[in-house]
Design a protein that fits this description.
Length: 123
């Protein structure tokens, strides 16, 4: 009895590889943004969030949740993150360069989606 997974058809294998690669790209971008956010003081986060809030045409005080979202968006806009195409080319050339920077969020793409036609109770 073999524990090996049944082989996926080539097209499904390519689709899965593409999903994993895109998930790794988003993980990389998230780690870059998070790395910059944690370096900011609370005052810097507040100023950044206020700038983003006002740039959106609002004069009111942003809520805490809005400040976090706005600061995150502000950091993302200020960073020079590669496009997916640029990143995937560089990743293909040297995966180790990026793998150490990943947070591990991409691993959820490795989980198999349940088969909607499978019987949940085989008994």
């Amino acid at each position: 009895m073999s524990d090996a997974r049944p082989k996926e058809p080539p097209e499904e294998n390519r689709d899965r590889a593409e999903r994993v690669l895109r998930a790794k790209y988003l993980d990389y971008c998230s780690s870059q943004i998070a790395g910059h956010l944690v370096l900011l003081s609370p005052d810097e986060i507040y100023v950044l969030a206020r700038e983003e809030h006002r740039a959106g045409g609002r004069d009111s005080e942003p809520s805490y949740e809005q400040m976090v979202r706005l600061a995150t968006e502000g950091v993302a806009q200020r960073l020079t993150l590669p496009t997916f195409e640029q990143w995937s080319e560089e990743y293909a050339q040297d995966p180790a360069r990026y793998d150490e920077q990943l947070l591990g969020l991409w691993e959820s793409e490795l989980e198999e989606a349940p088969d909607p036609e499978a019987d949940p109770d085989p008994n």
